[in-house]
Amino acid sequence: MKRFVTLFIICCVLICPILAMSGCSMSSTPNAISSNYENLAKGYTFNTNKGGAGDSVTFTFNSNKTFNTIVFKENGDNITDYELYVNSEMIYKSDFIGKYKYCSHASVTANSVTLKVVACDGEWSIKDFEAYYICDTYQQDFEVMSYLLVDRVYQLSEETASLMRYTTQFNLFGSVYLDADGHLHLQDFLFDGKSVDGATVLGKAVENVRKYNPSAKIVFTILGNLDIMSDGLDTQDRHSKAMGKNAETLIEECLALMERYGFDGISFDYEYPHTYKANRIYGNFLKKLKTAMPEGKTLSAAFSLWNITLIGQFPISKLDYLDSIELMTYDGFDERGNHASFYEMCAEALYKLERKGIDMSKVHLGLPFYSRPVDMAAYWGSYADVAEKLGVWGNSVVEDVNVGDGNIYQQLCYYNGRQMIYDKTCYALDTGLGGVMIWHFSCDTTDSELSLYGSINDAIKSRQ
Fold first, then answer.
1. I need a surface site. Which of 269, 322, 405, 428 has the fewest CB within 10 A?
2. Domain 31-132 CATH superfamily
């Protein structure tokens, strides 16, 4: 009996922190912000803190303040459309507040802020309000990294190339694939009915990037999700064989390809190792590869939140061998079906990573330039197609959802519009992240007033 009680106590000690970690949530402004910047709204007063659609609440400071960031916390999650007014002028508009919303905007000076709730799912109630003037959070090594399809950049137009100036690193993907024996293969392509070999396409793609953005780093992304050698393996087993028994061959070929095209680094988009063994093989391989890489060359990998926060998943210690962690903070549906909301896929996601002890200066926050339907169907819409409908403030639009087999229907789809991208970029800068990661380049619009790359650039300028 004593032995049973002892074992029970030990299990509780081990399990409780795990349960606490899995259930943790972000509810306050991160220390990186609150410790370095004064909450200018401290001691604010308000005329009310609840209401319905069409109602407003005014928060009043004790004197005139200059600020460029407002934080709201809602009791519940009922607000679905709201506007912010300063000196009777609308300065901000968005959809949801929920547990925590970081609203970044141009600097204004005033003694009050009015929140007008345009639409809601029931009576709303504001829990708290903060205001900050944030500056000088931009660091020279802050990366704006974008995934770029090789066949798209091979056929790059002058108009699309104008967007390339905003990017500091391109991850070229859809070209290089691994097999179970550790060999790399270059995908051939069909253009205007003519086949072009993979080496020619990749070479021209690199040439075009260098032409339009000479200062940007170029990294090649290795994929293992195609059965190019008819091995019959699934994605995990193919990676495990290549990165385990055949690791030396794979490393040798990675380094050779990097040198052949003058790449600045190597990236992996491995979705996903889902067993303890596969994750250990992957982590050990990345350590070996980084150790073998020449000085100055970078190694990065894409991860979903669950892949590095759940017990038994990717070994955290092996993240030390990566120069950047590309965090796929999208396709993570909340209760409303929004796949990249601010709270779940930005504030809370980063909070969970930091609690795991991860070096946040290596993290690149994923920003989607595409939509997902709120019913979570297998459809991905392009921001460029709906930019005008969304305008500056919008995130949601009804689209014709095509899931194949002739099945097309209309459904509300969720994007990250221009203001949301601005908010998330500011949050990444203000919390000390290493950068942002865009999936993917070709989804942006060339309209300078609506471009998401332009929004990222505006956010960076606001923090310089």
1. 405
2. Galactose-binding domain-like (2.60.120.260)
